[in-house]
């Protein structure tokens, strides 16, 4: 697990260091995209996030994030990431398009 386990006596925590310095709303934004991928409407998925204390993101920043994730997965799919990467790109694209009112 390469440093992902923090052990303090009987307590063991698994830490995802992938985005340790990201804004507090980033994990929730990824979850919103996952909810869209699970079949929820983008607006409904976004509404879920508004109940979270960390959801302090400006609308333009969230739209930029959605576009970034779309590009990230589109590039990975083009580089041979397979059907999973293509599907993630499609889901992120749907969310980004909704954010842009398309």
Annotation field: number of helices: 3
The chain-level structural class is: mainly alpha
Strand residues, percent: 5-15%
Gross morphology is globular
> In total, how many domains does the architecture comprise?
1
Distance between the termini: 41 Å
Give structural notes.
This protein is mainly alpha-helical and 102 residues long. It has one domain (20-99). It is 60% helix and 8% strand. It has helices at 26-37, 42-49, 59-99, and strands spanning 5-8, 11-14. The protein has a two-stranded antiparallel sheet. Strand 1 and strand 2 (11-14) form a beta hairpin. Helix 1 packs antiparallel against helix 2 and helix 1 (26-37) runs parallel beside helix 3 (59-99). The termini are far apart. The model has no long low-confidence stretch (mean pLDDT 90).
Task: Summarize the helices and strands and which ones pair or pack.
Layout: E1 5-8, E2 11-14, H1 26-37, H2 42-49, H3 59-99
Antiparallel strand pairs: 1-2
Helix pairs in contact: 1-2, 1-3
Task: Summarize this structure as a short list of keywords or feature phrases.
globular, about 100 residues, 3 helices, single chain, mainly alpha, 2 strands
Please give a quick description of this structure.
This protein is 60% helix and 8% strand.
